[in-house]
Design a protein that fits this description.
About 55% of the residues lie in helices and about 10% in strands. By secondary structure, it is an alpha+beta fold. The protein is globular, with a radius of gyration of 17 Å. The two termini are about 35 Å apart.
């Protein structure tokens, strides 16, 4: 029985970064899919600590909050930088990814996609700056080994390629970063799998 269980809706949403991390690290996990109807009618919502999903189980440890789960997996698999300095930078990047997630979720809900896409280069610039500062953009977002923040950033960028195809064309370093990470053998296999391909980014829409 896989030690990990992800309890979540049938979307990529807040869980795809952790799925990519687990797949790339050669781990298996169980999915417990919760439909919107069952979520509203079942006692599951009341049982969740913050009244929201995802819920993540690592053996007898139950965690909520997607970024806390990513950090837990980062510590578990040594994906948290090589020292405290790098760990601090990894945390900074991950918080930056969270900021962008919050930016794009609201305008898309409110029909403001065109304006958001126009503003997108400004949201992506910090990550390009960080890449340039780290081995000229030829490596990971921090240091010379992959971190949990890389998976979160990769998920964010892949989502944007669905949202606005071609949106990374004016960001060659980010585009090369996506290509480079997506070519990692286990991650490449996961990204080509039906589990990933057939799972919408958010809700009934692609994003």
């Amino acid at each position: 029985v896989p030690p990990y269980t992800i309890v979540y809706f049938p979307v990529r949403g807040r869980c795809e970064a952790m799925r990519m991390l687990l797949a790339d690290q050669g781990q298996s996990w169980k999915e417990e899919v919760v439909t919107k109807d069952s979520w509203m009618q079942s006692p599951l919502k009341a049982s969740c600590l913050y009244g929201q999903l995802p819920k993540f189980q690592d053996g007898d440890l139950t965690l909520y909050q997607s970024n806390a789960i990513l950090r837990h997996l980062g510590r578990t698999f040594g994906l948290y930088g090589k020292d405290q300095r790098e760990a601090a930078l990894v945390d900074m990047v991950n918080d930056g990814v969270e900021d962008v997630r919050r930016h794009y979720h609201c305008p898309l809900q409110e029909g403001g996609k065109a304006r958001y896409v126009q503003e997108l280069p400004g949201y992506l610039k910090p990550f390009e700056t960080l890449l340039i500062q780290n081995q000229g953009g030829q490596a990971f977002i921090v240091g010379d080994q992959i971190s949990f923040a890389d998976y979160n950033l990769l998920d964010l960028l892949l989502n944007h390629q669905v949202l606005a195809p071609g949106c990374l064309d004016s960001h060659p370093l980010l585009l090369a970063y996506v290509t480079r990470l997506s070519a990692r053998p286990k991650l490449k296999a996961y990204l080509a799998s039906p589990e990933h391909v057939n799972r919408p980014v958010h809700g009934a829409q692609k994003i």
